[in-house]
Amino acid sequence: MKEIVLITGESGSLAKLVKQKLSNKYQVKTLTRNKKKVDNKSIFYWNISEKYINESAINNCTHIIHLAGYPIINKWSKKNKQLMFESRIEGAKLLFSKCQEFNIKPKTFISASAIGYYGLESTGHKTEKSEKGNDWVAELVDSWEHSADNFKKLNCRVIKMRISLLISKETAFLKYNILSVKFGIGLILGDKNRKISWIHIDDAAKFIQNAIQKNNYSGTYNLATENNITEIDLIKILRKKYCSCALIINMPFIITKLLIGERSKIINTNYTVSIDKLKQNNFQWIYEKFDNIL
């Protein structure tokens, strides 16, 4: 009989990919807030604010992958910040309380997290043991990780993924940069030498597969590659691939800040993260270099 994997964040691109990759070996169930998607076979309804999860979704669950999270790039209004918090932290707490209520003891709990833990205005090179930042995003991520740690009370192996910029040709960051270059403009926001830590979505999905299947995966991991890229190098790579005559325009960061406010800090981080712990687990990247994605 196949082990049961439960995934939250059903509509997200990473959740969809993980579901696809795990479906051959596991019975995969997903949770959604959209009642129209529910089939009560593989897709089940949950409502965090009402503290509801369909018991059939979590019953006999062996592994839980918590990827739900209201997008952090959305406007940072008071209401949206609450949604960002609720979907991540309260979502994890609800999963834990339902496991207790239904006497479910999963082997593995894998939670998304973010390198925002280190602070949006931080600098330098960060390991998993580096200090937490002091802005509200860092506080959000810290609470997110603490909510995942509740599962240790169930003797569950807990893995927390501090994900860097998640990349594929379909994700917004790369998609819109490619589109801009194709139309003849290579737009750089702020410092052209700002370093970007990134990981391809296929590698993030591969990490989750490994984390389920290999018991030596445990604790917190920075999910990134060794080959960080600067804003200017990114645009040069895209120009070479799509439009060599594209005009490079360096927009001062102050303009971005005026356009989208406080959340502009997300696209102005300038630190790198250590991947030594991934190497210690002998993780093999599918996409080690940015050029390979294209």
Structure explained in plain terms:
This protein has 294 residues and is of the alpha/beta class. It has 2 domains: 191 residues, NAD(P)-binding Rossmann-like Domain (Rossmann fold), CATH 3.40.50.720; 76 residues. It is built from 10 helices and 16 strands. Helix 1 packs across helix 6, helix 3 packs parallel to helix 4 and helix 5 crosses helix 7. The longest helix has 24 residues. The chain starts with a strand and ends with a helix. The mean pLDDT is 94.
Supply database-style keywords:
294 residues; alpha/beta; Rossmann fold; 8-stranded mixed beta sheet; two-stranded parallel sheet; 10 helices; globular
Q: What is the string of helix and strand elements?
A: EHEEEHEHEEHEEHEEEHEEHEHEHH
* Mean residue pLDDT: 94
CATH topology value of the largest domain: Rossmann fold
Percent helix, as a range, is 25-40%
CATH architecture of the largest domain: 3-Layer(aba) Sandwich
Spatial strand sequence of the major β-sheet: 4-3-2-1-5-6-8-13
User: What is the strand tally?
Assistant: 16
Give the full name of the CATH homologous superfamily of the largest domain.
NAD(P)-binding Rossmann-like Domain
CATH class of the largest domain: Alpha Beta
Number of helices: 10
First-to-last CA distance: 40 Å
Shape from CA axes?
A: globular
What percentage of amino acids are in beta strands? Answer: 15-25%
Sheet having the most strands: 8 strands, mixed
- Protein structure class: alpha/beta
